Structure prediction request, 802 residues.
Amino acid sequence: MTLLAIAIFLISAAALALELVLVRALSIGHWHHFSYLIISTALLGFGAGGTFVALGSKKLTEHYRGWLWSLVMGFAMSVPVVFYLSQKVPFDEVQLIWDRRQILYLFEYYLLLFVPFFCAGSSIALGFTVFADKAPRLYFYNMVGSGLGAGGIVALMYGHAPENLLLVISGAAFVAAVILGRSLSQRWVAATLFAAAVCVFAFNPAGPFALSINISQHKSLLWYRELPEAQLSAARYSPLARLEAVRAPAIRNFPGLSLVFAGALPEQMVIISDADGISAINKFDNFSDLDCYDYMTSALAYHLLGNPEVCVIGAGGGSDVAQALSLGAAEVTAVEMNTQITDLVRNTFNDFASGLFRRDDVEIIAAEGRSFLQTTPDRFDIIGISLLDSFSASAAGLYALNESHLYTVEAVEKALSRLLGRGLLSVTRVLKTPPRDSLKMLATIAEALRRRGVAEPGNHIMMIRSWSTGTVVVSPEPFSDAQITEAREFARQRSFDLVHVPGIIPAEVNRYHVLEEGPVYYRSAQRILSGEWKGFCRDYVYNIRPATDDRPYFFDFFKWRSLPHMISTLGRQWLAFSEWGYLVLAATLVQAVLASSLFILLPLWIARPVRTAEARKLFVLIYFLLLGLAYMFLEMGFIQKMTLLIGHPVFGVAATLVGFLFFSGCGSLACGRLLRRGRPARHLIVTAISVVVVLGIGEIVLLRLGFEWLVSFSRPARMMLGVLITAPLAFFMGMPFPIGLKRLAARSQPLVPWAWGVNGFASVTGAVLGTLLAISAGFTAVVFVALGGYLLAAVVSRRICP
Prediction:
């Protein structure tokens, strides 16, 4: 039993680590939303393991030692093999709608990634089946292993390529196989060690089958690599991004540069994040070499205020910092979350960057932008946020599922509160066709002003556009006549189109970059800044309603009711104009539900042990389904809350996952002891769920009403506070599942692996369904739906724990 518990600990850690590494690898090779599609299907393998054990429970349990070793070995060996094969599949997501072969290729991805999760799920389900009476203890090792696996792999992602970490994961599984092999004979141990040596030899970075990520041909990295004399100058790895610095004589990255600029452009190199996000480093001798930055829409704010103290959110390679200094900034505070980028600019490429990040008038702050605005006591004349996402991915609608707490109404309010006197917030976004991104930013800013009590937001806002970018400049105070005149002159000299300035008239718009559909930006801006803005946002073809902290999906522009119109008017080109990241998520939910239903219901008809079980199978199904959905929903809701509190996406996700899984395991261990002392199972379930509901509501209220106080602490303190907040909730969340499983084993042993599979399928479906619910209703709604699910589970529990 002890050896099995250790093996389950290792397999659980390796399985969750594999999930996180595959998410990273698929985000680099394709885009992050395909991680939902492929990982959800792959994780069906984890739940399918329960179905497999239910179907063959008699044979599997009779020779469980050999089967456990075989399944764990299958997981260990398949991890590098299936990843290597998956990267040979010529899958191209952009061609899905017109090339039917891509569906076949996508299915190949499913089948390959299904294998290791199936092996892992089967081994754990078999362990729970054989030792069902020890379910609380095994669940402890399962959950704690998962938590430590998540935390450990996130730590290892710093400085290590995701594909190389697959060998670490495989190694952990081989260790589990060695442990299980010892209960058989030394030959099994020797076979395990031999297989491990073969895998290391074959798939290590210098081996004949070295693992590497196949990059989609639509990502920017491939284009930059093909430039004449292109050189890869550096590479860095972290949970945030894979960074690659590319240098080539032809590189010129000046988004939205005015077409009237006739001067020389400085030499550049680019830092590319996850093969697509571009950040440029400039080489210059003096600031006169950067005159081009005065011909970008983001320069407007510097013509409205002289000698400003500036805060740049998302410093990247330093282009926005260089722009600020070249346009007269007295001091620049550069905020960048990814310290590997600032290290490249400040150290590795310091000479090329002309010492930009080592200047006395430049202060580098390592922080996430929203977190910095939330916690800094400093005030600035100008706060600039410019083009922080990839042009190609954003234009294709591939950011639809990205949460961003920097582009919410609350974030804009916080930024405005960090301005000095008549300071300015400047936000530059890419222009899309049809218009949506910049209009949503305008609507978000206008709503933030309204919440501050501004009755006429149009007097506080200016917006201009070039051929590819739009900049919105906002002030807490109404713009002066002199500033309005300066803005008009700035736009005229650079052939930028006015979208809105106080007192604008129709004759001033759509003059330089003429749109066939007319002054659509101007007309939309007038509606957004008027009293009828809610109706306009409701009726607009895209979702441009302001994003909030509870629904922080700024890049979600999709509307279901607009889809039929797009398909009928655009034909086969409709996909390019839709936000297909959202569509992929919806498709993921459909396939997850269909596949889950098949695997859940199939044993009821073909597995005699399950079919003839005396327990009320319908109630078993509902109970474990509700637990899986509710647990996933609560976990997702608190990941979002903790990420906002801690102020860093990696730390927020890691702290929440580790905390939830570890303390859920502790709760499982505690309930096992309570059961041994004779406490009634149903009483424990009802008590645990009641505490979960009370704590869940209390912690949501605390995070909402006490957020400003909580966020005032240092980041390490906030991480500790996050653990303290989630620990008691997670502790009691870890009780209902093992109690139900143990009680089920006493009444109907064959249903144990089936219940495990049901819970696994619910978790897979819940991850996708929870995201869709968060997009449409908000994370608070997700949490309350989860609490309702727990209450229903408590009601149903009386049918399986009388």
The chain has 30 helices and twelve strands.
